[in-house]
Amino acid sequence: MLDFMFIFFASLALLGGLLMAFHPNIVHSAFALVAALFGVAGLYWTLGADFLGATQVLLYVGGITVLLLFAVMLSTRDAARISIARYALMAPIVGLLGAFLVTTGKALVPIVRAAGGALGPTEPTTEKIGNLFMDPTAFMLPFEILAVLLLVVLVGAITLARRGEEDAA
Amino acid sequence: MSETLASHLTALKPEIWLTGTILVMLVLDLLVGKRSARTVGVFGLIGIGGAMWALMNQSSVPVRAFGLISIDTYSIFFRALIISATGIVMLHGMVFRGIEDETRAEFGPMLVGAALGACLLVSTDNLIMLLVGMELLSLCSYVMAGWQKKERRSAEAGLKYLVYGAMASGLMLFGFSLLYGLSGSMWMPEIALAVSEAWSLGDAGQHMIVVIASTLVFVGFGFKISAFPFHFWAPDVYEGSPTPVTSMLAVASKTAGFGVLIRFVDTVYLDLTIAEDWLGRFGYVIAVLAAITMTYGNVTAVKQNNIKRLLAYSSIAHAGYLLMGVAVMTTATVDNRAAVGIGMESILFYLVSYYIATLGAFGCAMAFANRFGAETLEDYEGLGWSSPWIGACFIIFLTSLVGLPPAIGLIGKWLLFKATLSVGLDWLAVIAALNAAVALFYYFKIARALFLRGDTDYQEGLASKGVIPGLAHLSLIVLAIFTVYFGLMWDGIMEWVSEAVM
Amino acid sequence: MMLFLQDAADAATEVAADTAVVSATAVDIANSTFAGNLYAYLIVSGALFLLGLAAILTRRNSLYVLMGVELILNSANLNFVAFARFGNYGLDGQVMALFVIVLAAAEAAIALAIVLRIFNDFGSIDITRTDSLRD
């Protein structure tokens, strides 16, 4: 069951990512991104991160991509010109970094495994995360700062996007 | 519970002042913002003054708040620079003509929000808080960079800054995730333990983790301080943003970037006896980056015509000088640990001198843009005679930036050079000295345009009367006086700096 | 947006309660080849990271770059959660991922606002040619 979930969501994430990165039409890319993000949400569920997965679906898949789609549809409609030169530049960088990441991953896995020991059953995390956010010795401060951030940023975003009174007339 | 909460909050009084200022400004904006943006701004200035006052009253005994923030002399030093710079930028933002009166009232909360983020960024040693603080600073900066209506360059600057900034923080986050995997903690001292263990006991694969993670994390910090090769956003964004925002980016944002970079380097790499070969190589990479950054900034600045762009490249060059100090810290060998302190002191001192002169130089650029709409070197011709006070201040700031007597910049450069020589990085000191000569050339171009070129007749500009514009001009003169005064008596600053390092 | 986030948080709690059925028992984990294997997750997150990087490097359109960044953020988040689970590091990793999601939302809101600004002020909609700032 878990394996099936993993394979399903991982391939959703990877196929979505592939399509997003290489599809010439940006609107299709944006929809592929939705699939990829949903796949990642599924992977969170297989890792026992239930609240995080749900947040990912609601905020990332439902919110952020909609904002991005709005922006995409307002801006470009033509297919992006893809230049061979950029691919030639990209391939070695990505390849090299990929090789580095493989080495890194190989070295990291034993360290993490040694720290974790045998995997226990997963437990609901929602309440625990909520307690962490309200605990002054845990993450209360960043949580509150995030509230300030959202307030300020939204006022700023609205001011940026708002038409002036003389334009609206 | 409530008692502990209260004790946590008392440690964060300046931040509470800033948050309160944001809220008061937003409410006032609803009440009177359309009619009187200046009222909102004045309250903002009062709030920032309050934050500054609360900061100065903080004791130098280290305190921890919320388990995430450490309030020590180091963080007080950086927050003092950030908050006071914000106050001056706020004053300039109230008079800058590029910002419409219609949106001027909303500009203040963005500025204070950025300052709040920067303050948290330099005080924290936890990766989660670090990310939130850095994003608060960045997101407010993105908004402010695109603030100017009907100005294509400003909107483009906002978009470019956002896209590149998101990229840099994404890479940094991936680096954090590797560090988290390695150490199982978001807390820098624990990460330091894991990093040193992986380096001294691990095989090539574990070394790779440390190298990749450190590189990715450095992308994020390097972007904030606009070090080569992550500098490419700076000229475009500095030129396109409204001028007060540019000075905020050049001063407060860069100061915060160095604050967090030094804390990270000091905690994660230097607090422990990491195998010396690692430290040595890491330090030499930083030294090479410093050399490239300053050379690139200075050489490119020579051919610039737009003043803000020129100052942007000069600010990249100064990031290179400051990185010299980081190179000193990281190349200090085990038997020369004192060099770490010397390097840090020289960075902090140079930051003070950079802060005064850059804030002043961008302030002068704003004053000229306000009065004459001047942006390029041609526009500047002869303007020194039309507003001699601002012109003279500009010359003083440039003197400090280039490092000539009697300005404070000279002392800053001297300390940096001394520190560089103390760890045997002679070649870096030579490159820096050559760079200073190049810098002299392009700074002189501004001075020549102001006073030696064009007609020396008085040109009628848009005069701005009133208390606030007067205060804005006064702030420039005060900064100029500081530049010279501290250039002659730097003991006070030196004392403050060495206290912050301890 | 604040309301939206609050609603989202409420809804997330509900959905989380529903998805608690997928939370695994120890037996499930012992029987799984992939889902109990850190390598599998690291491969997915590494691939997402590289795909995001490829998108950033090959496209000029700013919005494409932003989408690539979203992939990178997700790969980092997946790393955090996977490390926290397999290393038994506690909930810090998930908390970090939650913060990243909210920060990404704020960032996307600003991106949309700036695009709208360009659209309103200039009527021009092609933001791929942002060339008025040049040396």
Brief account:
The complex is a heterotrimer of chains A (169), B (502) and C (135). Chain A has 169 residues and is mainly α.
Give the low-confidence spans of chain B.
none
Question: How much helical structure, as a percent, in the residues of chain C?
Answer: over 70%
Number of domains of chain C: 1
Structural class of chain B: mainly alpha
Written account of the structure:
The complex is a heterotrimer of chains A (169), B (502) and C (135). Chain A is 80% helix and 0% strand. Chain A is mostly helical. The termini of chain A are far apart. The model of chain A has no long low-confidence stretch (mean pLDDT 87). Chain B has a domain of 228 residues. Chain B contains 20 helices and two strands. The radius of gyration of chain B is 22 Å and the shape is globular. With 135 residues, chain C is mostly helical. In chain C, 75% of the residues lie in helices and 0% in strands. In chain C, helix 3 packs antiparallel against helix 4 and helix 4 runs antiparallel to helix 5.
